[in-house]
Amino acid sequence: MGTSSPVPFSDIGKHAKDLLTNDYNFDHKFTLTMLSGAGMGLIATGIKRDRVFAGNISTQYKSGSTIVDMKVDIHSNVSTTVAVREIFPCTKAALSFKIPYHKSGKLDVQYLYPHAAITSCIGLIPTPFREGSAAIGTKEFSLGGEGFLILLQPPSQSTMPELA
């Protein structure tokens, strides 16, 4: 993907937040990272805030252009993301979902081209939603926008009034 591609519009706020809050942690934090040469990584993280201890275990597997992330928190929630780069030139696709939340699935597709970035997200739920954003420019300066659409389903045949 081009080195002069702008940051996707949906990531601009994330970069600003990281700039202000990254590496500023006043809580007790412990991280254990184990990496293998075969592309597998295991990370255990624990944080103590006041008298509450929270933690999670995450694993990541990299093989070629595919990355599989899986994270388990202290409430037994499992978050999974499967990302594939270069399905088509300059693209990245990611499928993510959470267990036991069956209404949390989404599919993200990014197209990064020199001086242009287009991102689309589709919710894989009974009432799907669609988000889209675009940015043009360079890494240093970009201009963009985003939109959101909820796709409503028509009423079922059983709720339609009968005409006599």
TrEMBL record:
InterPro entries: Porin_dom_sf (IPR023614), Porin_Euk (IPR001925), Porin_Euk/Tom40 (IPR027246). It comes from the Eukaryota. One of its GO terms (cellular component) is mitochondrial outer membrane. Pfam families: Porin_3. GO terms for molecular function: voltage-gated monoatomic anion channel activity. Signal peptide: none annotated. Belongs to the eukaryotic mitochondrial porin (TC 1.B.8.1) family. This is Uncharacterized protein. It comes from Kingdonia uniflora.
